[in-house]
Structure formats: structure tokens, C-alpha cells
Amino acid sequence: MNHFSKQPYFLLALMGLTLTACGGSGDDSGAPTTPTVSYPSYTDVIALGGDTTTFDASNSGHGFSTPSLNLTEDELALHLEGDANFEASFTTAPNSEHPELDGLGPVFNNADCNSCHQRDGRNSTPFLAADQTRVKLDSSAGIFLRISKAADHPCTVGSADNQYCAPIKVPDFGDQLFHRGVLKARADWQDNAFVGQADVYLSYERHDVTYADGVVVSLKKPIFEVENPYDAPGETKQSTNVTSNLLQDDVLMGWRNGMPVFGLGLLEAIPEASILANVDAEDSNNDGISGRANWVFDAVKAQQGDENPVSLGRFGWKANTPSVRVQSLGALRGDIGITNPLFPDESVVGTSLHDSYLTRTGFIDTGEDANGEPEASAAFSDSVVFYAETLAVPARRNVDDSDVREGARLFEQLNCSGCHTPSFVTKTSGDIGGLPMSDSLKGQTIYPFSDMLLHDMGEGLADGRPDFLADGNEWRTRPLWGIGLTQTVNPQAGFLHDGRATTLEEAILWHGGEAQQSTDDFMALSQDERNQVIVFLRSL
């Protein structure tokens, strides 16, 4: 795709024409050449979300929390209902005063959606005090660990027989580690009250990157340590005899940060064919970039009886979920422990921890309400999903600034757009998440700056953990829209899948693999040019 348009320096051109008109010998062999600079076609774009764009987000701590501007009156009411439910904090069952809010856990990562998506953006990055070497994840942590068993061989073709290449669950634990629990979640609750499946500790290792001009940037990488698992209390990886299922050498773990939730309906409304048009798994054009699609299990299709419940992965750090509905309700059941119509069983159902918990507490919290229904009703679930589908994309800022414009040119020159595809047009009809899509999402020209595909980002960012067809080095291209407001919305937010990058510059320097050439070229720029790339990103 050609992202360029011509922008001549009109003043110099006009001076040249004036001199010619005033006469002279007619010999123009010594006349200066009119310089021309090519800028990408998206340089002047402001409305990144089409008609859904909000223009009131600048310098606002709630810049990601505006409803799409083109919702109907009824849709706005549903959106606002979902907003309230997104903020709801759940409690341990039973809660006789607010039974609609009970059912938390029994193990979980957070008690509400907002804790991982603060003000609809990213969560806060855990920081260590000067006298700390590591910090234990607690109720303030928006980061958690995905877990799975290493496969005997890579899964490349999904089928019902191999669970469509889904991550292999850790026996008696699952595929996500829950570091928090309700009071009696564990059998040893007197010693480990409010502890989940295990304790998780975070520390950082650091190294410096030095530009050719001598500027030094310090990078940090989060390191996790898992201790005190419920199936072997007090045990660590350093124990003489490791017995816990969780601490075995073939258990894979990877950090995951919460992501912004605005603009998601628009991303789901991108036609599948438009995304697949950018697939280049074999790098046939030899540009070093080989985007791949992730095909994943679709719980909505499975519930509808589809014989092949597989869809294109669009969401999650490894494109491991197909829709806002699966992503939202999967997190409601997983991160918080609230069952719902799409996921009616607890995520830890059938584990020793869950069976023991039910027995010890007299089956108080079975994952069902008094009527035998899931803990979150269909109305509650639908409103939360619609809320996430219809949050407005913030408009760009400072598009006329000369440094922003130069940054756009350099962004293209560095081939950042090779993965961060600037633009798509959403479909004009059809469903999303198994339901008819809102008219507000239809036919919109949007600028997410993402191809929605998987890319090998190198060993530096790798977590070594496959997820459906994504391998341990691959990550989905993160949309860049709104990224300039990230730390306005939450000053403690970080970038990348584990929050390791405090600044956008650090995030760029972590790019390896298919992006290594772009990173090298970025490092070869002057300091002024590097700053121009950053101010362009901040304009998004």
C-alpha cells in the first residue's frame, strides 16, 4: 500500500518561478532544484476511529472512557449500563445485600474489570522500592501469569482431537495462575488466608542500550518467581524435592498485562479478508516481515453447535481470542471467577483446590446463583460486552506540528507500517461475537496502526509459550491508536505485554526478530529524528 502524498515547499517553488519570469539568460543549468518531501497519507488524519472518534480526550485522565459518538439513544443506555457493570467490584458468596455481586473466585487475579484496565487503559506497572529486590503480587497488581505444559512437538494444525492447538493445561491448575483467593480458598487457609493457587513475586533485570551518539537508555525485563503452590505449600523451584504440578520443568509461564479496551468493536468489524490479505507467512516479498494468522477455538461458535468452532484470532497479546465477547466473558470468568452464560463453569472446576473448597465451605459458592444460573446474568454479560465494543477512539493531536509530521515520515521510512498497518475499512453488515453488529461500527475508515497478525519479535520479548498457532516468539501487532494518551490516563502504565517499557522509546528498543531492521534503523537516526518518531507516536 502506498502511504505517501507529495508536499512541495511552495515558497521555494514560487521564488523559482518569480526569478524566471523576471528574465535572465534563460540558462537554468545553475538554478536550484526545488526540494520535495513525501509524507505518508495518514500524516494529516485526525479521526482515527471514523465516526466513533471522540475529540475531547486531550490531556484527560478519562480519555479512553467516552462512548462512541454515533450511538443511538438505546445503545447509549446499554453502553452506560455496561460501564457501571465494568466498574462493579465482586464479593465472596453469599452476599445477601447484593447477591448480584457475589461469586468472586474462589481464586482470581482481581475483583473487577477496572483493576486490570484502569480507566479503560493499561494497568499500573509494579515498581520496587529502593530497598526491595522483588515484590509480591497483591490486590494492586494488574499483571498475571499465563501457564501451560510444554508440548512434545509443535501444534501446527488444529482439530478437535488436539483441542485446536489450545495451550495444554497444567494438571490441577489450568492455563492461568490465580495469585489471589477468597478467605478459605486453600486447605491451609489459616496459614495462607486470601492466597490463591500460589504466590507470585516480580523482580527486574536490567541492561543498557547505547546509541552511536553516546546516549544511553536503560531497559528492564520482568522476572517472575512462583512459590508456595497450594498442592505443595512452602515449596519453591529451589526445593530439594519438587512435587508441585506447577513447579515442574515442563511448565511454561508468561506475563500478561491488561490492555486498553477502547475501539475493540471496530477491530472486530474489520473484514477477515482484509486482515488475511496482509498474511505473508513465507515472506514472499523478502522484506523480512512475515505476518501470520492465528486460528483459535471460538466458544461462541461451539455454543451455537458449529462443527468447526474455529475463528481468526484478533484479541489478546497472541491473538488468542476471536471476539470481544469471548475476550470479555472469558476474563470475567477467568480473571475474576464470575461464571456467565458463555462460560458457565468455574475456570478451576475439577481441580483439587476447587473440590476441597466446596467441601470445606459447605458448597456455598458453586459458580451458580440461587436459581442455578451462572453468577453473571445474560443482561449483565451483554452490557459489559457492548461497553467494550463501543468505547470511542480518541482523536489525534498536534497533527500540524512540524516534528509530528517529520515523525510520520520517519515512521514510514523505518517500515514501522510493515506491521503497524495504518488503515482498514470496517464491514457494512454481519455479526460480531455471534450477534448483529451495531450500525455505529459499520463502514468506518479507521486507523488502528495494526495488521492484527502474529510476528516473531525476537528472543528478547519471547516468553517461549505457544498459544494456539502462535509460537513462543510471536505476538500480535498492538494497535497504536491512543498510545500517546496512555500515561495521561494512567501515569504508572507501561508498554509491551509485560509492562517492561516505561517509555515509547524503550518499547521500540525491545523490538527484535522481524522488527530488528526497523530498530537498527531507528538507532541510526540522530537524536532529533528519534524524538520526532516519538512525538508522532504521541500524536496517535
UniProtKB/TrEMBL annotation:
Residues 402-540 form the Cytochrome c domain. Residues 1-23 form the signal peptide. SUPFAM superfamilies: Cytochrome c. Keywords: Heme, Iron, Metal-binding, Signal. InterPro entries: Cyt_c-like_dom, Cyt_c-like_dom_sf, Cytochrome_c_Peroxidase/MauG, DHOR. It comes from Shewanella metallivivens. This is Di-heme oxidoredictase family protein. Pfam families: DHOR.
